[in-house]
Design a protein that fits this description.
The complex is a heterodimer of chains A (about 70) and B (about 220). Chain A has about 70 residues and is mainly beta. In chain A, about 10% of the residues lie in helices and about 35% in strands. Chain A is built from 1 helix and 5 strands. Chain A has a 5-stranded mixed beta sheet, with helices on one face. Chain B is an alpha/beta fold and about 220 residues long. Helices cover about 45% and strands about 10% of the residues of chain B. In chain B, strands 2-1-3-4-5 form a 5-stranded parallel beta sheet. In chain B, α1 links the parallel β1 and β2. In chain B, α1 packs parallel to α8, α2 crosses α3 and α5 crosses α6. The longest helix of chain B has 21 residues. The chains are: A mainly beta (about 70), B alpha/beta (about 220).
Chain lengths: ~70, ~220
């Protein structure tokens, strides 16, 4: 994980749902989409340009944080 | 305790009775976040540490001064062979129940949420409690947030305009800031996992009051 704090609006989260995995831009009122698998959700999140991708575990903690080129 | 002796924030104080060990971290963090999210104050035996203070007396004081209580009795069932069942949670639930029944006019207004992991697991371990409305969360933090949020709404403590999913999403966003800021301050993964509960509560309270982190 980088030591620099990114702007909040530049993050997209992959979050566990009761049924599937949601892709949600930070600050958005709802998820863009809920996928059946975590892999599909991560792929979708990574396709969104200029966004860090924060992949969460089922308990909400951080599994990994993938930086977009812009925030490096 | 007479009504006059009750603290001013009694109405929104929530006594939290749940396991406080590392294995419960994944559930206690979203639980505390939800309590803070709806504007209440979590009260736990671990909120202050004083070797000279008798633990049971402190617990009774917290129970008596909190109108709301959340009891998680998931640990009445052992997870593996040879594991000793934890009796603290049902014991403290019993004290709270007694406080409500015998504590006078004010404590009769106490409201409880009792949680367990699997539906009806408590029936066999705590059969005196049969027939009570106990909710289960299956060890899932999102389900736990939903049950806690619904209970606050049903009891007029929180607005029904905020869905449980929004609280869960906010908790995930909060966790991102929690890890980034703490790592920036020199905390490692173990520090974060083992962080004392009062420290976590203060961080969550600040985050909810001031909003998420932005670039400095």
């Amino acid at each position: 994980m980088s030591k620099q704090t990114p702007e909040r609006r530049d993050r997209v989260h992959v979050i566990a749902r009761d049924k599937g995995w949601a892709v949600k831009r930070e600050g958005a009122s709802r998820a863009a989409r809920v996928h059946d698998s975590k892999e599909a959700a991560v792929k979708h999140a990574k396709s969104i340009p200029k966004q860090d991708v924060v992949v969460h575990r089922k308990d909400g903690s951080i599994q990994r944080w993938e930086r977009s080129r812009r925030s490096r | 305790m007479s009504h006059d002796n009750l603290p001013a924030n009694h109405e929104k104080d929530v006594f939290i009775n749940c396991p406080l060990d590392h294995n419960f971290t994944a559930l206690i963090r979203p639980l505390l976040f939800t309590v803070l999210y709806v504007g209440c104050t979590p009260r736990l035996a671990s909120e202050r540490f004083d070797s000279g203070e008798e633990r049971l007396r402190k617990i009774c004081e917290l129970i008596q001064s909190s109108r709301l209580s959340i009891h998680d009795i998931s640990r009445v069932k052992s997870e593996k062979k040879g594991e000793i069942t934890r009796m603290n949670m049902p014991f403290e639930l019993g004290i709270d129940f007694g406080c409500r029944l015998f504590g006078g006019n004010d404590t009769r207004r106490k409201v409880f949420l009792v949680l367990e992991k699997e539906k009806h697991a408590y029936d066999r371990a705590l059969s005196d409690f049969s027939g009570m409305d106990v909710k289960n969360h299956n060890g899932n933090p999102e389900a736990l947030i939903r049950e806690v949020r619904n209970w606050f709404v049903e009891n007029g403590v929180a607005s029904n305009r905020v869905p449980a999913t929004k609280i869960w999403d906010n908790f995930n966003e909060f966790m991102a800031d929690f890890y980034v800021q703490r790592e920036n301050e020199g905390f490692n993964t173990e520090d974060l996992q083992m962080m004392p509960i009062p420290e976590y509560i203060n961080f969550a309270k600040t985050w909810l009051n001031t909003g998420p982190l932005t670039t400095k």
